[in-house]
Specification:
An eight-stranded antiparallel sheet has the order 3-4-2-14-19-16-18-17. The chain contains 23 helices and 19 strands. It is α+β, with helices and mostly antiparallel strands and 723 residues long. It folds into three domains: 112-245, Gyrase A, domain 2; 259-423 and 441-468 and 556-722, Multidrug efflux transporter AcrB transmembrane domain (Multidrug efflux transporter AcrB transmembrane fold, Up-down Bundle); 479-551, Alpha-Beta Plaits (2-Layer Sandwich). Helix 12 runs antiparallel to helix 13 and helix 14 crosses helix 19 (585-608). Strand 11 (200-204) and strand 12 form a beta hairpin.
């Protein structure tokens, strides 16, 4: 064994140990996303429009700190609160699914004010008749109307404590006891001393909670807020008051809430899809490539370990699309092994020694593997750059998976083969051969293919255009989606009647998975209103809220813009890279045209199936872009090689020869990747079904376009260049 081989073995073992330390124990090292464990994702906008210029810059930072303090006291573990842009705050609350309580806790301004109640009966009588004097306002408290002086005598800025206590005289009714600092106590003492006998209203965010009469001066700086609270409401109010007043109003621009039931289902679906996809690929590889397939299967298992280990080390959250990315990279990892094995097969046919066969296989396949993975990495990197939430997770996992697959497919498997080649009995590497040497004139059939493509594209994109705004989900248009799981069957007609009854006329209602589950889409934030109506209307059929997604119009526009930028930059990046690598823009242009073909096929398939464009679909389209060029590059790599070997052959002969030589690899790799995608489609759950459907359409189109679009276009382009 050479020192070089020993060094490579040590490096491979080091990476394995590094990955195992990073991933074990799984429950501690791998952070699950909100879509897997349940929880809330909120994008908050701090409205600084009413603040003076000097206060606008600091307001979002103050708001962030106050929100973090509130959530800390709420007891949420592994929370994430950070600033985004100039006036936005992202809040992620794992495990929190009580929407109303969380939104109240985070979004309440908590402006505590003390104001005097006007005791003039004449002014009060006029106010009741609609003649409210200037400087006053009519308010409700405990079913009583009071005339409130708008002048604020004291605010909650000087509070030092707020805690829940229980009033023994009112059957242990909870209230919030507050205490001021020295400055606040002094002011409070003056207010109560100067207004003995009058009523002092305690106002929180414009709502009067109580208006007790001042019986005497209160020098202690202590007061109480009553209001028929539940223990939970009193506790939350105390938390909010302790954390402080928000410097400006806050609005929820985007919300994504996943219930624990859907989270558990997503985890189970993801694991099931991963195992089934992995097992199917293992079986095929072992059956078709025999011993070499066993080595490839081991490399794929190692690939999984490296992905999980890296996620653990960099503390990246694993999302449901991230699991799909892992499954997808396993399918794509097969590509490297198939390329190498098919090259080995060619060299074995010449009767060479196994060491020569191994060296030839890896050396000849290397450039195609590198180029095809880099183009997919370009798409994955742009997903991370322009995506949000789970889609970023998909981009990260896909990137890690692609790099891991190159390491295991090129580096680790070569070590194993070189170790085995030291055995004198290792003289052959048997493999099945389903595809004999072909000599099909694919280029002659290009006009049939062009015609077929035009028909399919016109049908798909025509449907896409005709559907108009219906093609876009709330990620791009704004609006809200709610999913409910009822204990018994429920009809969409009954749900429609209830929703129409509360004045929500624009709702789209559909069943999914089974007749117990209903999805409701509205243009406005109507979740609370709809939830209450369904609870009342189906008293004998209780439901569980599976998820809520809300996207404001401004966020929808931003997501749409970012999705478009991701697609444009992805195509531009791939075009430039292929042009540089092959030193000929004809290769790049033909490849990118085929890429457009596949992306449009995916979009058309989605339109004809009645689906909607959302962030998951953008991830699928970018993956198709990377995969399509991946396929094309393998043929281009062989064309580049054959151009040097057969200088007297025509371009048409070279292209036909190259397509035939790589046909076995194209079919096998596509079949392997489709096994992974089909497992996501069938077993990955409802959330990933549209994503995997678009991938299926795009990847099937990718094989077709590589042979019948990219290759013939290359000849046409080459002919123009040589004229």
């Amino acid at each position: 064994m050479t020192k070089n081989l020993q060094g490579r073995i040590a490096l491979a073992l080091g990476v394995l140990v590094f990955a195992l330390v990073g991933m074990l124990p799984l429950k501690e090292k791998i952070n699950l996303g909100l879509d897997l464990q349940g929880g809330m994702h909120l994008l908050l906008k701090v409205d600084t429009s009413g603040l003076p210029e000097e206060a606008k810059e600091d307001a979002p930072l103050k708001a962030l700190e106050i929100i973090r303090n509130r959530i800390d006291e709420f007891g949420v573990k592994e929370l994430s609160v950070y600033r985004q842009g100039t006036d936005e705050i992202v809040v992620q609350l794992p495990g929190v699914t009580d929407r109303d309580r969380a939104r109240e806790l985070i979004g309440k301004t908590a402006l505590l004010e003390f104001k005097l109640v006007e005791d003039s009966q004449d002014l009060y009588a006029k106010a009741l008749e609609g003649q409210v004097p200037d400087g006053y306002e009519l308010k409700d408290v405990d079913k009583e109307k009071i005339l409130l002086n708008q002048k604020t005598l004291l605010t909650g800025d000087t509070l030092v404590n707020a805690e829940v206590k229980f009033d023994q005289s009112r059957f242990n009714e909870p209230y919030v006891a507050i205490e001021f600092n020295a400055k606040g106590s002094s002011v409070f003492s003056e207010i109560t001393g100067a207004n003995t006998g009058k009523r002092l209203a305690i106002v929180l965010d414009g709502k009067v909670h109580s208006a007790p009469r001042i019986n005497e001066r209160i020098p202690s700086g202590k007061a109480s807020i009553t209001g028929r609270f539940t223990v939970e409401e009193a506790s939350d109010l105390a938390i909010i008051l302790r954390a402080g007043t928000l410097p400006a109003p806050i609005y929820i621009e985007e919300e994504r809430t996943v219930g624990p039931l859907l989270g558990r289902d997503s985890i189970n679906s993801g694991i099931r899809a991963s195992l089934i996809g992995l097992i199917l690929i293992f079986i095929f590889m072992v059956v078709y490539y025999l011993f070499a397939g066993m080595i490839a299967s081991f490399a794929m298992l190692l690939n999984f370990v490296i992905i999980l280990g890296t996620l653990g080390w960099i503390h990246t959250t694993l999302t449901l699309p991230g699991i799909a990315g892992m499954i997808l990279t396993i399918g794509m990892a097969v590509d490297a092994n198939v390329l190498i094995f098919e090259r080995m097969r060619e060299e074995m046919a010449t009767g060479k020694h196994m060491r020569s066969v191994i060296s030839f296989g890896y050396d000849k396949a290397y450039s195609a593997i590198l180029d095809s993975n880099i183009t997919t990495l370009i798409a994955a990197a742009l997903l991370f750059q322009f995506g949000s939430g789970p889609i970023k997770g998909f981009g990260v996992t896909l990137s890690i998976g692609l790099m891991a697959s190159m390491f295991t497919g090129i580096f680790v498997t070569r070590i194993i083969f070189e170790l085995i080649s030291t055995n004198k009995n290792f003289t052959k590497l048997p493999m099945l051969k389903l595809f004999p040497k072909t000599n099909i004139d694919f280029i002659a059939k290009r006009w049939i293919a062009y015609t077929l493509s035009i028909i399919v594209l016109l049908a798909g994109l025509g449907t896409f255009i005709m559907r108009g705004e219906k093609m876009y989900g709330i990620d791009f248009t704004g609006g809200q989606i709610q999913e409910y799981s009822f204990s018994k069957h429920v009809s969409t007609e009954d749900v429609r009647k209830i929703i129409d009854g509360i004045g929500v006329k624009d709702a789209t209602i559909q069943q999914f998975v089974n007749k117990n589950q209903v999805l409701i889409k509205t243009s406005l934030d109507e979740a609370d209103k709809i939830g209450d109506a369904l609870k009342t209307g189906f008293q004998d059929n209780p439901y569980e809220l599976l998820r809520v997604e809300k996207v404001g119009p401004s966020v929808g526009k931003l997501l749409k813009k970012n999705a478009l930028l991701a697609l444009i930059w992805s195509l531009a990046g791939i075009l430039i890279y292929v042009g540089i690598r092959f030193k000929n823009m004809a290769f790049a242009a033909a490849g990118v045209l085929a890429l457009f073909h596949d992306v449009f096929i995916g979009m058309g398939a989605l339109a004809m199936a009645g689906g909607e464009m959302d962030l998951n679909i953008i991830a699928a389209l970018l993956t198709i872009a990377g995969y399509s060029v991946n396929d094309t590059i393998v043929i281009y790599d062989r064309i580049r090689e054959n151009l040097k070997l057969y200088r007297k052959a025509s371009m048409k002969e070279i292209v036909n020869m190259s397509v035939n030589q790589t046909l076995s690899r194209t079919v096998i790799t596509t079949f392997m990747t489709l096994l992974a995608v089909v497992s996501i489609f069938l077993f990955g759950g409802e959330v990933l079904r549209p994503f995997s459907f678009v991938l299926l359409a795009g990847m099937i189109s990718g094989v077709y376009s590589t042979v019948f679009i990219a290759s013939p276009l290359l000849i046409s382009w080459h002919s123009r260049q040589t004229k």
